[in-house]
Design goal:
The chain has 182 residues and is mainly alpha-helical. It has seven helices and no strands. The longest helix has 32 residues.
Length: 182
């Protein structure tokens, strides 16, 4: 943000790409594109937005498989913690990842079931929009689990709907048959 590139940014090629794109619009080469107000005029802000947008689309089109892999990885990072505090054991991290994965899959299943049975269950489909919003906005970009914090209660709600459906259709009937006997 101070117009200086880290060694990692230089080694990765990010510094050269940012400098090239900034020069192409007449901005100082080290202007950080991550903050539009770093560009001194509205015209440069608009030009930077367009130049960096074209560069991003060009990269996506030239490496669609890499972009698809990036988006798939973001799907996990969007709903699950990527870094745990120091001192958390590897076993506990794995257990947390498993639980997070189960909740995420159950929540997605609950969305699907709500789309299919919402009327029958007398459940509104409107909350799906609030759950899908983080996907639409953040999934194609850099994502972190904090972006979905406000939607997590909805994910849990849909996961509970999926678990209730699982109980009613598969588990519960078998338990009840065993209790009733022959």
């Amino acid at each position: 943000y101070q117009g200086r590139f880290s060694d990692q940014a230089v080694k990765s090629g990010l510094a050269a790409e940012v400098s090239r794109l900034n020069r192409s619009i007449g901005a100082p080469p080290n202007t950080p594109p991550f903050n539009p107000v770093a560009y001194p005029t509205a015209e440069l802000q608009i030009a930077a937005n367009r130049a960096f947008g074209r560069a991003a689309l060009g990269r996506i089109l030239s490496q669609p498989d890499q972009y698809a892999t990036h988006v798939a990885g973001n799907l996990w990072r969007l709903w699950n913690t990527g870094r745990y505090p120091e001192g958390v054991s590897t076993v506990f991290k794995i257990l947390l990842a498993i639980v997070s994965g189960i909740v995420f899959l159950a929540g997605c299943s609950g969305v699907g079931l709500t789309l299919k049975y919402g009327r029958e269950w007398n459940v509104s489909r409107a909350p799906i929009l609030f759950l899908v919003y983080p996907f639409l906005v953040h999934l194609p970009l850099h994502t972190e689990a904090r972006y979905t914090a406000s939607a997590r209660p909805l994910l849990l709600m849909f996961a509970s709907l999926a678990l209730m459906h699982l109980w009613r259709t598969w588990i519960g009937p078998g338990v009840n048959r065993r209790r009733a006997g022959p």
